[in-house]
Write a structure and sequence with these properties.
The complex is a heterodimer of chains A (115) and B (114).
Chain A: E1 4-7, E2 10-14, E3 19-25, E4 32-37, E5 43-49, E6 55-58, E7 61-66, E8 71-76, E9 85-92, E10 103-105, E11 109-114
Parallel strand pairs in A: 2-11
Antiparallel strand pairs in A: 1-3, 3-8, 4-5, 4-9, 6-7, 7-8, 9-10, 9-11
Chain B: E1 4-7, E2 10-13, E3 19-25, E4 31-37, E5 43-50, E6 56-57, E7 68-72, E8 75-80, E9 89-96, E10 103-105, E11 109-113
Parallel strand pairs in B: 2-11
Antiparallel strand pairs in B: 1-3, 3-8, 4-5, 4-9, 5-6, 7-8, 9-10, 9-11
Classes of the chains: A mainly beta (115), B mainly beta (114).
Chain lengths: 115, 114
Amino acid sequence: ELKVEQNPLFLSMQEGKNYTIYCNYSTTSDRLYWYRQDPGKSLESLFVLLSNGAVKQEGRLMASLDTKARLSTLHITAAVHDLSATYFCAVALPRMETSGSRLTFGEGTQLTVNP
Amino acid sequence: SAVISQKPSRDICQRGTSLTIQCQVDSQVTMMFWYRQQPGQSLTLIATANQGSEATYESGFVIDKFPISRPNLTFSTLTVSNMSPEDSSIYLCSVEAYRGRGYTFGSGTRLTVV
């Protein structure tokens, strides 16, 4: 059974600071996704990481994937209040004929950026 | 990427009743996925709906409680049956945007059972 663990689960940081969220997973996979969820809202796709060594950047967020270590990181640079949200990583299991390629989600990291 | 219209967006239901949630996609997709997000929790996959065949349910979820229909390649419904307060959650449908390129989620249905 695939397990996906995020840490930290709660992160309170000041504006302007840097921090990294970690996502570890237990089974071989080369597809990992990061999502953002605002309170009461659905999930917004942030990054799609499809191969070992993949690095994607968008604004103040940068995501990377190390499939050998089964680890992905989401790095926040010079945080601003607008980044306050819950961030989820999700790992895709291998594609199955009847059930497609299912996602297993981490527990989520609730980020609060304080002025 | 695909756009999903999910409804209702929220509902308050009496225990013992059923609610059917609908998801309409603006393009044809092979698989549709249904997730549950309990308050303050992460997302858990309920089942995968493949057009023309029975849905595949995850451990802990059964067809009698969560019947799913998938009449065509753009539409699916999830019914939450015989509801209890423990069913109060957000329910989301999802599709794979295109192969290996990410998944799109509906806006979610916030269900409260009283």
